[in-house]
Design a protein that fits this description.
- The complex is a heterodimer of chains A (480) and B (62).
- Chain A is mainly alpha-helical.
- Chain A has helices at 4-19, 31-37, 59-67, 77-121, 144-151, 172-179, 184-197, 199-209, 225-231, 235-251, 261-292, 308-316, 321-329, 337-342, 344-383, 390-393, 396-408, 418-429, 436-449, 455-472; strands spanning 22-26, 46-49, 54-57, 131-135, 296-300, 303-307, 475-479.
- A 3-stranded mixed beta sheet of chain A has the order 4-6-5. In chain A, strands 1-7 form a two-stranded antiparallel ribbon. Chain A has a two-stranded antiparallel ribbon with strand order 2-3.
- In chain A, a hairpin with a 4-residue loop joins β2 and β3.
- Chain B is elongated and about 40 Å long.
- Classes of the chains: A mainly alpha (480), B mainly alpha (62).
């Protein structure tokens, strides 16, 4: 049936085309040609209007002729032709859709996922991902009462007590409680510090320093009192924990201590005094840091470790992290605020120059590697096709050649949308004999334009567009 | 209409739209949705979408 609805809907475009003297007719031999022929409309349903000087088309006549039943057979030819074409076309369209959904889309997904995973495994340039890490002393060391108590060990001769303490097992809660002094402020600081360090830190200190367990573990590092309180990465935390514990134990030994009292007292006092001396030296260092405004504490790869109190003041006074990044690039690097500020413009310029260059190099590297990954994973995908896609199996070399040629033409900005790129590459190289690219890229575009719609809804519109496109390929356009 | 032949254009475009609507009615609602943004894809909408696509396909002549 040719409905009035269809004729009314076609009228505005017909008017536009008429005004440009454009005539559209069906391509001879096409399904649309057969359908139009069945309409039995041969440009005889219009009449020249003398008043307007134009042709008036009689839609009712067209509709009547198209839908009239054959006198002999009693059927409407247009209905019969329409049913036949609709049956064939809808079966074909459904087949294209299913193929795009069940074969092509998974192949694209596979290439996208594998390529993304390979990109994620790429190690970034050392100069990208620069970091400034602030360092502050353990919280209890900011307590003035504790400073006073360790200052008396400042001039103590250096000694290395043996790790021979044999104290009973304690839970981490008992260890933390044992460190507390009864002073509210300091105990609060200890609680806060303990939560930052975590349970394993205190268990390790207890087992290595206050129990004999370390003696049997030859591969344990560090293994001496000195290495714990001076050389380890957490040496200051170690010294603080040892000091707080030994100070308390020197006053009140634990029950079930497997040592004689003389040995215990001598060793625990050594622990307390030597760890106290270490802490007093640390206080001297803090004083020096503040006195000379030592901003940079150390540099570790692309990380600049800064003294927090100095760093905060420097940032408040207008300091910028880019200056510190530039500081790493200029050897030897500077440490104090005065040194860094005096070179700040040069350091910042150095960083800007270097980061721009590094970014370009990194971007080019990523682009090249992405193309390599795409080719490698596509090659693997093609190699693994064993059944169900005969066109691929029989044309591996042609498909790979097409893919390689397409990869050569990929622009860097296309790699930002890897799904869209893989869709194009896979469809053009492997599924070039199908309409999968039109259907799938339609879904992708509609989803982007209407983020709120579901994939099934986007697929519906893409399919309608595909049907319309296919029909429009049967138009013949003439300018008269 | 200025041209007598525009009747041919109208019949061609109307048949094209009718065919699009008939095929669409068979294929939507199964593997793909029969709604867009929650609204049903009725024949009116399908006809309009078809004519918009047809206009795009002849736009280079306009």
């Amino acid at each position: 049936m040719l409905t009035n609805q269809a004729l009314i809907a076609a009228f505005p475009l017909t008017t536009v085309l008429d005004s440009k003297r454009i005539v559209v007719s069906p391509l001879e031999g096409s399904p649309l040609f057969t359908l139009v022929k069945a309409t039995r409309s041969d440009s005889n349903h219009n009449k020249f209007n003398e008043t307007t000087g134009e042709f008036d088309i009689n839609i009712t006549d067209i509709e009547y002729m198209a839908n009239a039943k054959d006198d002999v057979l009693g059927v409407c030819t247009h209905d019969r032709v329409m049913d036949e074409i609709t049956e064939v076309v809808s079966t074909a369209v459904t087949g294209h859709m299913m193929f795009a959904k069940n074969v092509v889309a998974p192949a694209i997904e596979d290439l996208v996922v594998k390529t993304c995973n390979s990109i994620l495994e790429l190690s970034p340039s050392a100069l990208l991902g620069m970091e400034v890490i602030t360092w502050a002393p353990p919280k209890p060391l900011l307590n003035s009462g504790l400073e006073t108590s360790v200052r008396k060990f400042e001039d103590l001769p250096y000694d290395v007590p043996k790790l021979a303490m044999k104290l009973p097992d304690l839970t981490v809660t008992e260890i933390i409680e044992l460190m507390k002094s009864g002073s509210g402020d300091l105990d609060n600081d200890i609680t806060e510090w303990a939560s930052v360090k975590g349970d394993s830190f205190f268990i390790s200190i207890w087992e290595n320093i206050f129990q004999i367990k370390q003696a049997g573990l030859t591969d344990r590092v560090p293994v001496t009192f000195r290495s714990f309180v001076y050389d380890a990465p957490d040496s200051l935390d170690n010294a603080l924990a040892i000091y707080l514990l030994s100070r308390r134990l020197a006053d009140s030994p634990l029950p079930n201590t497997e040592m004689n009292l003389t040995s215990f007292n001598s060793l625990i006092i050594d622990y307390r005094n030597q760890s106290g001396a270490r802490l007093s030296h640390a206080f001297n260092e803090f004083d020096k840091v503040n006195k000379i405004s030592q901003l940079v504490r150390s540099v570790d790869g692309n990380k600049t470790i800064v003294n927090e109190s100095v760093y905060r003041r420097w940032i408040d006074a207008g300091g910028e992290n880019e200056i510190l990044f530039g500081n790493i690039l200029v050897q030897p690097f500077s440490s104090t605020v005065d040194e860094i500020n005096s070179k700040a413009p040069m350091l910042k310029a150095e960083w800007n120059k270097y980061s721009a260059l590094t970014s370009v190099v990194e971007r080019n590297r990523l682009f090249t590697r992405t193309k390599e990954f795409l080719l490698a994973h596509f090659r693997e995908q093609i190699r693994n096709v064993t059944e169900g896609e005969e066109a691929t199996i029989g044309n591996r070399e042609i498909i790979l050649k097409k893919f390689t040629d397409l990869i050569d033409e990929v622009r860097e900005d296309e790699t930002k949308d890897l799904w869209a790129l893989c869709l194009k590459l896979v469809c053009k190289a492997r599924f070039y004999k199908t309409d999968a690219e039109r259907i799938l890229s339609g879904i992708e575009r509609i989803k982007k334009e209407n983020p709120q719609v579901s994939v099934r809804e986007a697929a519906a519109i893409s399919l309608l567009e595909y049907i319309n496109y296919w029909i429009s390929t049967q138009f013949v356009v003439k300018i008269v | 209409m200025k041209l007598s032949e525009s009747e041919q254009t109208l019949v061609t475009l109307a048949n094209a739209g009718e065919l699009a609507a008939n095929v669409a009615q068979r294929v939507i609602g199964n593997e793909v949705a029969d709604t867009f943004n929650g609204a049903p894809l009725n024949r009116d909408l399908i006809h309009n979408l078809a004519q918009t696509t047809f206009q795009s396909s002849v736009s280079k002549y306009l």
